[in-house]
Amino acid sequence: MSVKIRLQRHGKKGKPFYWVVAADARAKRDGKYLEKIGTYNPNVNPAIIDLDVDKAVEWLQNGAQPTDTAKNILSYKGAMLKNHLAGGVRKGALTQEQADAKFAAWLEAKATKISDKEAGLSKAQSDAKAAALAAEKAVNEARIEAAKPVVEEVVADVEEAAEAAPETIDDAAEKAAE
């Protein structure tokens, strides 16, 4: 039986959510699977990947072949590196402690890269909001400046009408009586 590590689609239209599963190669995409290894949510930036690395390495060592996308996800989370290091341990090229140290150093570097990307994204969002606010203020000031002559004309017309109009209602009644 040929086993593949692949994505199984869940979620709704336009909002995909995937399970990373080990499944028989002959099974349908969203059909029966042997084991659920993790999840992948591409709807956020950066994408959220929850993966049991040890289970993935176990399946890889047992001969499961990842699809292209699944291989990228496994590489991103370090399962492919851990499998590679486990092969080195089996061959005697390095000890388990050395392999664990290399994997821990890689995980730390990866976490730093991810946090830097998140910080850059949040900074970019705040800069975009600040730029939009400044542009909106400029547009509002331009509108106010453009409306000043019109407002001054209206005020002048109202003042002229007030001067031409009778001062009180009694005056208007006297003029009407004459």
Structural write-up:
The structure is a single chain. By secondary structure, the protein is of the alpha+beta class. It has two domains: 3-75, 2-Layer Sandwich (S16 Ribosomal Protein, Chain: A); 111-165. Helices cover 62% and strands 19% of the residues. The chain contains five helices and five strands. It has helices at 53-61, 68-77, 79-91, 96-164, 169-177, and strands at 3-12, 15-24, 35-41, 48-51, 65-66. A five-stranded mixed sheet has the order 4-3-2-1-5. Helix 1 (53-61) crosses helix 3 and helix 3 packs antiparallel against helix 4. The termini are far apart.
What is the gist of this entry?
With 178 residues, the chain is of the alpha+beta class. Helices cover 62% and strands 19% of the residues.
